[in-house]
Amino acid sequence: MTKIPEALAHGRAPAAFAVKATSRGRALSDRRLHLPEHSWSNDPERRTAAGIPETVQFATKPRLAAEMIEAALDAGITASWVTGDEAYGQDPQLRAVLQARGIGYVLAVACSTRVRINQGRTPARADALAGRLPATVWHRQSAGYGAKGPRYYDWAWVHIDTGSHRHLLIRRNRSTGELAFYLCWSPVEVTLSELVRVAGAAGASRSASRPPRTRSDSTTTRSATGPHGTGTSRLPCSPWPP
Predict the structure, then answer these.
(1) DSSP run (H or E) holding 141
(2) Angle between helices 92-100 and 61-74 in degrees, nearest 10
(3) Among 58, 51, 70, 2, which Cα is nearest to 31's?
(4) What is the model's pLDDT at position 82?
């Protein structure tokens, strides 16, 4: 693995990180240097001054994430889920890699993301879809523990595309009403509680990807707390809004 030069390790260029999360803790498992295409990759003088090897070329953060995940799986590291922020959730190639490897994902996406509901027949924008859901499909669940105890939100999930293994997961802040959205896929049927648990792992694991006194602007978190479908909640999933 390429050693990151000291100048870059202190935040002058970003990186993509992989964090392994389990019920007993979390740890940084891999990292890849991300060189912005124009300000770093195509600037020979800057590359030379920072000591960046010629073998390190531009790659998007989702591509780096896919490389790290595949390397971990090939090395025998097990994981049932991958979760990450919008930088990764918006990338269809990363999602395709995960599906090909049989790894479920809960990936954040923008409110403007378009999905297909009603067995794939009806296109809908995520935020508009959330506004049409009835009160009965929202459920209060904890996304894990934070500094002040359990982090409770209202959650709803909607079947998207065809089949029963794809969902749009929606999180609503109980105080402000702010919404967050996640595209979800799993190789087997799962529960709402399981998807909420995985979504919550992303926020809990960000600190593991931050070097001392350095703030990372991205994280790819992998959660492996057990096999798919181990949640206990059997709350109904809304196939499409009335």
Answers:
(1) strand 139-146
(2) 10
(3) 2
(4) 94
